[in-house]
Amino acid sequence: MSLQFVVDGLLAGSMIGLGAIGVTLTYSILRFSNFAHGDFMAWGAYATLVCVGAIGALFGKVAPIAPLSFGWPLIVGLIAGMAFTALLVLLLDKVLFSRLRRQEQAIIVVMGSFGASMALRSLLEFIFTSRPTYFSRAIQIAMPVGLGIRITPDQIALLVLTVVLVVGVHLLTTRTQTGRSMQAMSQNPALARVVGIDVAGVVRVTWIIGAALACVAGVMIGILIQIRPFMGFDMLLPMFAAAILGGIGSIPGAVLGGLIIGLAEAGAVQLIGAEWRAAVSFIILMAVLFVRPIGLFGVRER
Amino acid sequence: MSQTVLDVRDLEAGYEPGVPIVRGASITVDKGEIVVVLGPNGAGKSSLIKAVAGLVPISRGKVLLDGNDITAAPAHTMVRLGLAFVPQTENVFPLMSVEDNLKVACGILERREAPARIAEMYAMFPDLARQKRSAAGNLSGGQRQMLAVARALIIHPKVLVLDEPSAGLSPKFVSMVFEMLSAIRKSGVTILLVEQNAKAALAIGDRAYVLVEGKERHEGVASTLWDDPVVAELYLGQRPLKPEAGGAA
Ligand SMILES: Nc1ncnc2c1ncn2[C@@H]1O[C@H](COP(=O)(O)OP(=O)(O)OP(=O)(O)O)[C@@H](O)[C@H]1O
Ligand SMILES: [Mg+2]
């Protein structure tokens, strides 16, 4: 068996993990399963694509940065895409989720997110058609790094980016006042208000972090695979499996869960065939729910 | 001349529209006082102070803090206005460390001031200092109550409002909590205290109210309230208050 699946698995796991952070934060702080989270990824990827296109129209063709397949326009586009996705999600919260939350029944919000998911996806198909597109069609040469593993410069860059983002978000949520407020909200919203935490502010930060990371994950998928309206929806099952495997509310858990699922998927593809990829998340999800429903880093509700 | 810190006037509040639980209650707390609110189970004591803290919708009446109208102020602005509230249950964040429980409450302090203030709380509650890294959920009941009180005091409140701080504690911790409240008052903090443990609360209190069915029915000096037959009647129906000490049925 070739060890190549490790690289593939870590990359898939990064995308799943970045998405799962948003899922787990939304679940623990806003208290609902957000089925539109995958579509935030797709919107992020398309927003970034549009920015890159706009930069191309303004500045002409820009040479890629040395070994990578992309140049600064993608980096600028990604940052703009993250901002756009965050604004889109805040708008969606204002017109939809915040109103549904007032009914204080999670199922209503979950159903709302289903609707939002379909609407967001259809809108992408309407604007961009369902034909896949790409950030770059250049083929990158994968470098051998020993043990029969090959990796492209893009892949290395994205893995590094994932590590930086995950560490950043982890520090933000554990070491800053904003992060402590988020923890407080997830543990006891009424007490959070009593100690002076503005719930609306915490809700905003939660959406912004989730949306920005979803955008990054979407762009990663766009760089390594392709961009299409269903790209995020197809990530839903692995993302939820990762968030639950890691333990709802735990950011390191979501990332570790993502990596485990990514590696398991890649291993399964190599061992038994690509058509089994989707089954892997499902099997892991079921196994966790049966054996340890609180996940790896979860804490029992008291 | 005593100065009124908290002035609750004719307050009506409840969880659902048209179903008031607090029905026209009026109480005042003067600077430096400990005021006790007593009353039978379900009288609306918790609802009254939760309404004061902004957690239960108010349909009529006023809450004034240092003369400022805070009736409509959202709950999260209360600490900034100077009112610190310690709920009856679930009053710490169980999965956060003791230190983080204190830090998260420092939001309204100057960034520089927070560490010094946390150190002062540790000096006041050495038990908390010893356990600053443990999750608050792992503390004993008494220590949890201390943490909740420390968290409330950290912002220099004008008035500290507590809901049954001795509930569910073992007798040793109960006396510790009341000693702690006495000490806090000596340091100049004004206290509004809801208690079931009437005897101990009246022993440290200055004035007391008896709340029945959402309205204060009696007010008096704490030390003599205990012997007032009217209170016994209001508080425990027809039964007198005294024979509780023997514990015989
Ligand atoms: N969250 C709530 N929603 C609806 N009704 C409530 C809620 N909390 C309390 N009540 C009702 O309000 C009434 C007064 O309750 P409250 O807790 O204020 O009484 P209390 O005097 O504090 O009692 P105790 O001594 O048991 O703490 C009760 O009838 C209770 O059922
Ligand atoms: Mg009560």
How would you describe the overall organization of this protein?
The complex is a heterodimer of chains A (about 300) and B (about 250). Chain A is mainly α and about 300 residues long. Chain A has a single domain, classed as ABC transporter involved in vitamin B12 uptake, BtuC. Chain A contains eleven helices and two strands, in the order H-H-H-H-E-E-H-H-H-H-H-H-H. In chain A, helix 1 packs antiparallel against helix 10 (about 250-270) and helix 9 (about 235-245) runs parallel beside helix 11 (about 275-290). The longest helix of chain A has 30 residues, at about 70-100. Chain A starts with a helix and ends in an 11-residue tail after the last helix. Chain B has two domains: about 1-80 and about 160-170 and about 190-240, 3-Layer(aba) Sandwich (Rossmann fold); about 90-155, no CATH class. Chain B is about 35% helix and about 25% strand. Chain B has helices at about 45-50, 80, 100-105, 115-125, 125-130, 140-155, 170-185, 200-205, 220-225, 230-235; strands at about 5-15, 20-30, 35-40, 60-65, 70, 85, 160-165, 190-195, 205-210, 215-220. In chain B, the strands form two sheets. In chain B, strands 6-7-8-3-9-10 form a six-stranded mixed sheet, sandwiched between helices. In chain B, strands 2-1-4-5 form a four-stranded antiparallel sheet, covered by helices on one side. Chain B is globular, with a radius of gyration of 18 Å. The relative contact order of chain B is 0.17. Residues about 240-249 of chain B have low confidence and may be disordered. Classes of the chains: A mainly alpha (about 300), B alpha/beta (about 250). The complex binds adenosine-5'-triphosphate and magnesium ion.
Give the key terms:
heterodimer, A: 302 residues, mainly alpha, ABC transporter involved in vitamin B12 uptake, BtuC, two-stranded antiparallel sheet, 11 helices, 72% helix, globular, B: 249 residues, alpha/beta, Rossmann fold, 4-stranded antiparallel β-sheet, 10 helices, disordered C terminus, binds adenosine-5'-triphosphate, binds magnesium ion
